[in-house]
Design brief:
mRNA splicing; two-stranded antiparallel sheet; four-stranded antiparallel β-sheet; about 40% helix; about 20% strand
Amino acid sequence: MPPSTVNQEVNSILFIKNLSFKITAEEMYDLFGRYGPVRQIRLGNTVQTRGTAFVVYENVQDARRACEKLSGYNFMDRYLVVHYYNPERAKVDGQDLAARYAALEQVKQKYGVQL
């Protein structure tokens, strides 16, 4: 079993990372639709979410097959990172992100950096 599927609760929603910023929804449907009917694809469209997407399959078996086949797949010169969506992990990641932004702001103030 690929590393991306170990210790994850299998479900019909996949979280994709390391996507090209130029990818279109049509290209996503073409790629992920090879493994079964896709109900929805949500591409990240903010600075923090660019290069990520959620792919919702009609059934779990199709999501599992896509996760196994596409994790590490080279697409548009980038290796895809595919995980099953885990809402508990998303909450933790969001908290970590807020803390990292706060720490970054402190460093920027300390050194007088303005971006």
